[in-house]
Model the fold of this input.
Amino acid sequence: MKVRLSLLQQFGLFLIVLILVALLPAIASTYLITFVLTLFMYIALAYSWNFISGYTGYISFGQIALFGIGSYSCAILILKWHIHWLLAAAMGSIIAGAFAIPLGLIMLRLKGPYFAVGMMGLFQFLAAVAATWKSMTKGATGIYLPPVSAVAYIYFAFFGLALALFLATWTLERSVFGLRLRTVKEDEEGAESLGINTTFYKVFAFVVSAMGCGFAGGIQVFYVSYVDPVTAFPAVLNIMMIIMCLLGGMGTCWGPVMGAVLLGQVSEFLWAHFPYVYLILYGCLLAFIIMFMPSGIMGYFHKRKILRGGIHTVLPNLGSIK
Amino acid sequence: MNETILSTHHLTKRFGGLLAVNRCSFDVRRKSITGLIGPNGAGKTTMFNLICGNLKPTTGEIFFQGKKITGHSPHRLARLGVGRTFQLSRVFKGMTVWENLFLVPPPADSLNTSVNKAKDLLHAVGLDQLLNAYAGTLSYGQQKLLEFARAFMMDPKLVLLDEIFAGLNPEETERQIKTICSFRDQTQTTFVVIDHAVGVVLRLCEWIVVMNQGEIIAQGSSREIENNEKVIEAYFGSSSLESLMEEEG
Amino acid sequence: MNPFFLILQVLINGLLLAGVYGVAAIGLNLIFGVLRVANIAHGDFMMLGAFIVYSFSTIGIHPLIGIPIVAGVLFVLGIITERFLVEKVVSQPMAYSLLLLYAVSILLRNAGLNIWTSNYCSLDVIPGSLHIGPLTVSEIRLVIFMIALGLTLVFTFILNRTTVGKTIRASIQHPDLAGACGIDVRKIRALTFGVGSLLAGITGTFFIMLFSVNPEMGDMMILKLFAIVIVGGLGNYLGTFAGALVIAMAETLTGFYATTQVSDVAVFSIFLLSLILRPQGLLGGRKTR
Done:
């Protein structure tokens, strides 16, 4: 069974989804809106992780560090300078991105395990800094913010972020820029010998990922109206980002959203019924995915030829020679 | 324009206790096909890695077109016009032939120029029909051809070929020799070739540098090297080089 | 107290701690050498060792018996983990084994939190200290250091003098060739992971006797162990001691003058610094990719 949608059909489907999303807050219960809003956040985080780890192959165990930077920056901007929350979140995103440039230049020089563990260490390090730098962050007491007026605003903010990251990924997959970025995953040294400045590409992906996480952190902080080291650097989200991406399919365009939606549902269920062991179940799930379906759901579809596989860069073709 | 495109000066590379390259100095003439030979472990690939920036020399200098390039990163050297192919072909297997060519950053070309260049290169190596095939599905020989063609996407002035003849049958070897010669004539590119097949190198290259145990033991034309005692000794004690060539056919 | 003696005191404590870190770091290095896999769950294996011996002590089993039991349990657990989990991804790109062991780490850590809660625990085995002039050395630290040193020597002996050790070293240097020589590489891999986990478990038992720990200790531990391996150079056993010394000293020095959190900050800074300044430590003579 092969599913093939023409570009027009794909666009039509997309439009329908957009309309549904836009209408939801008007017709649904607060619970549902909250649930979908959280899903959008998950999607945004999954795409952020995918951008660096899926395409460059540099597995990060601590992208949540950038989420936290975004959170705290946004909170401080709102509190101290009374900046509008959306603008503050955007600024938080830029701050996370700026921080990611020197960070990326240092960390992305490291090979696989060191980068992974290094990022893991970074997020704990930042959590510790947040707890001790009381003058800036009020330590473990946290910062309190004015409450949200309407959940719909948060809903659309997260949706916008998820959409933007999806489009960025979609564009990346079709561009020559993305092609060069992907050489990093396949053979970094070979790419260098061809004149590709792999450091630039790696850091670029890392910064985009950081900005995505940072923005999400900023919006979230306004949503919860509170930030402290635990909510700014939530270990659960860190783990979920990774699982969602792997479940759907690392390094693919549709994988992250698929994984996010699926895991979002599962997590609601698990949270309700197995509040203490659900993290253990996450560990098992991740192990299962790695051992039995490492290319995720998208990979499974590609293998069974249900969907057209692989990434198709848009390149000029030869016209007459085909 | 200077005659010498590449020169090394007392180039040395030390790995802990091992002296892989020891005070090597040689020049490569512009538009020549120069060979770099030597028995196993002589340091040839290390030399390539040093020239292309994959390794940093312990001491010594490298000059490309008169400018010092010692310690430059590989991508910077590629941009300057130093291309290379690897012993084990490094095409990107998960990408198509066409994608493999296009991912090379063009040296300030217009898109049209790139398309035509890629078209011509594919034709020159005989891979026209395979442009949408994934590089991983190509045969070994085809992958090597792709890698060769790909190196020219960045208009290199110097191309280092590491064991380009390895694993090729006699027919493929002949074709590759012809391809290298025609490329040199048409594009004025300089080639430096490493290979174990001494016979092929003697045929193809005008100038040969011989290494043994990290040092350069001889330099000269094929004729001179063929009869050079030190070279013969380095390879196998005392039998002549001719009998080796006879073996290879 | 005379500042000179103060520094000496700190140095001694640092040295004693380095011995302990060294044991776990050797385990990590060994696993990496033979399997080419970075064991992210190493810190959590330490945690298991710590809490198993703790649980035994709460039911009346003295650590002297508890530690060998831990060694056995962790050895078997390591073998099982390798045989049924790691083995499946050993031939694939490193990213997979990284993620798999990350999953194991999450599993162990949360299982630990479930069983033992997030409370900090410690075992007071040998209270009391020795006094040498103005210096104080807690007896338990000394005893543990001796055991750690002994273990390290035994391990070095096994690695260099016995057949098993030589087989392991052969597998580290030439995994492909070792197989061709008739060495059952799969068995060696499982064995190595078992031994590495064993060493981690024993180090864990040391930790719970020296400090207060909770099931989340794996987080910080793995970072410190990686820092040690980076500073010392991956695969370089002598370097491991140097690395352990640096990290232990840094931790003890900062811990002396400030809070634990600050010393954690210090460790991470060293980790970062060593990454920036010591690229050889990152390649350590063998590629990690």
Summary: The longest strand of chain A covers residues 143-144. The CA atoms of residues 64 and 238 of chain A lie 5 Å apart.
